[in-house]
Amino acid sequence: MKAEIRVALVGNPNTGKSTLFNLLTGLNQKVGNFPGVTVDKKTGYCNLPDGRRAEIIDLPGTYSLYPKSRDESIVFSVLADKGNQQAPDLVVVILDASNLKRNLLLYTQVADLKIPVVVALNMMDVAKKDGISINVNSLATKLGVPIVPISARRNEGIDELKKNISYANKFALQQDSIDVKAIAPQLVDAIGEEMQIDNPYYALQLAHQHEHLTFLSASDNDRIEQLEQTHNFHSQKAQATETIARYNYINDLLYDTVKVKEAAHEENTSNRIDRILTHRVFGFLIFFGILLFIFQAIFAWSAYPMDLIEKLFVWMQTGVHQMLPAGPLTDLLADGVIAGLSGVLVFIPQIAILFAFIAILEDTGYMARVTFMMDKVMRKVGLNGKSVVPLIGGFACAVPSIMSTRTIENWKDRMITIMVTPLISCSARLPVYTLLIALVVPSRNVWWIFNLQGLALTGMYLLSMVSAVVVAWVMKHILKARERGYFIMELPVYRMPRWNNVLLTMFDRAKTFVLEAGKVIIAVSVILWVLSSYGPGDTFKQIEKKYEQPQYGQKMKPTEIEHAIASEKLESSYAGHLGHVIEPVIKSLGFDWKIGIALITSFAAREVFVGTMATIYSVDNADEIQSVKAKMGNARNPETGQPTFTLAVAFSLMMFYAFAMQCASTVAIVYRETKDWRWPAVQFLYMTVLAYGASFITYTLLK
Amino acid sequence: MKKLSQLQVGKKGVIKEFTDLEMSLKLMEMGCLPGEEIVIERVAPLGDPIAINVSGYMLSLRKQEASTIILQ
């Protein structure tokens, strides 16, 4: 798709920029990457009234061209890279009419770069309600640019905006805002001459930001640095002077174009809501209530669709086995690929539900209040108010939770959140815990109301929270901050959620998950399938031959023979051999080679543990957890004759599953979110060390 | 010399200057300029951060950050 005009969308956060982007592009959008950085690049196409096609780039929301985070640094580098084919021909600056003064700061900066600009004036309705009246025509004349009043939420004024985009000139017509040269007169001239730039503000911005601009060559950088030294340039002081000058200009501008009724400063609705939602007591109660509801909903609402997806794949597996001729290819397709796909797609309901809730919380403005309330506590352990939601989501599944950490602007806080989220007890651990607890903990009540098994399970959940907090605290001291930690954050007014946006987020995140995590999980599943379905030499044939002998046919039922063959095959498969290989290492944790096989096969996903145990102990009905439990309970250690699954072994195993990174999807998504394989590697390593240590201590103490 | 962090809920103050240049850049971009009136709207349930009203919108900041703002 070729675009005839490139349009960049620029604006403050919370101005309705993404809503406008969605309106302009519809579902015709894609998420890519800005070259060299880990910031998502959202682009889409829009048909203009004159028949041309416009490519719209949604740039990250920012309050100024001086970046405070890596996301924000993209804005200037995209606008400034003039030699690039991808450079925008036009900038649409979206302004919040109810907060015009602060919004105009960014506008004046962009306008001074002398790229053609169209202003979209959003939220006129909110401004009117607040008693603010804006003389749009007079403001447009003063700025020298077209201003289009729109309401992104109500889909009003969008056609008018498209018309203005198509009329837009190749030349920038906007008025100068401030006297840029006055800030650093000689330097601006010198850089202009050296780099052959005739725009003084562009020259000044190069002086401030040249170190972070990838399109500048090393020699350009050196020359600019040299000029800064010669002219004694102090970046921060120059920025302060500039900001003050810009606000003076804006105050003059607004003096006779905007009127605010005095009564407007009275108590508004948002304030009244805040009085309850950030209340000393009710604030926390309501927040925990909402969390509990989300947590419950993720489990309850996803149960049925997850069940359907699993059934669909079982049906497909049987179908493939029946339709295609028996052989290794059919087995690979059915037991490797389809089983792997099932392991990916089964999480979609949980991901969609979690993201729907997160989108609602963000959209309404409540998320900012959560951050506001939780910041003090979370800061103590090296996290951020915004880490709360990913951590709670971790009880369902670490994968969508790690994807949701993007709302955390601070790099260090975000990394720590990503690193500790997989420690939270996710839903895939639940079947493992249920099985092991049922095996060794008696179902007895203590103090009348507390069931021992329930207490053990609660203990595992508590342990996961404590370990996440402790690890976060440790990482706070290890990781170096890339930027100074700020908490200067706008508390946006409360709004109704935009349901389109909620649906779009759900769809977007589910798609990303399937594409990104899917590749890895299918690959891992296929490898694990090969490992557990093939053995060295002709061992498998010999096992089959052995059970063909008449003595087995007389004593055992056909299904019993089938299970015995499956069990023996797994034992002598490559996975079985691997189990034997790692036995010396895991022996001190109380695990034998059979458990070793389960540890290996459950690397793709933890819940596979139960299935593997069922195969190893040749359980007739693997669907019933009771029968797996019974077989495991009867298992004896061949040397001592004692039960294999003692209290010590079961708890040691639970500790291992609590800490180990037994999840290929999480590894894949951490890589995707950090774009650096060292993060998942470090995470895998530290979690394995923790798992080994915790299991070893548990086993040694309980033995 | 009165700092913004010493102001009580519901009270007004006018910004005079800043004690931290780097912090002041961010604060000024967000509309906290010398001469601007600030109202303390509320304090977070645990005592920190605080929420202020400046040029018609709500801004939250930590007390430590508020202590770099000197009032008239």
Question: What would your notes on this structure say?
Answer:
The complex is a heterodimer of chains A (703) and B (72). Chain A is an alpha/beta fold. Chain A folds into four domains: 5-167, Rossmann fold (3-Layer(aba) Sandwich), CATH 3.40.50.300; 180-264, no CATH class; 282-430 and 480-496, no CATH class; 501-702, no CATH class. Chain A is 61% helix and 8% strand. In chain A, the strands form three sheets. Chain A has a seven-stranded mixed β-sheet, with helices on both faces. A two-stranded antiparallel ribbon of chain A has the order 7-9. A two-stranded antiparallel ribbon of chain A has the order 10-11. The mean pLDDT of chain B is 92. In chain B, a hairpin with a 2-residue loop joins strand 4 (50-54) and strand 5. Chain B has a single domain, classed as Ferrous iron transport protein A (FeoA) (SH3 type barrels, Roll). Classes of the chains: A alpha/beta (703), B alpha+beta (72).
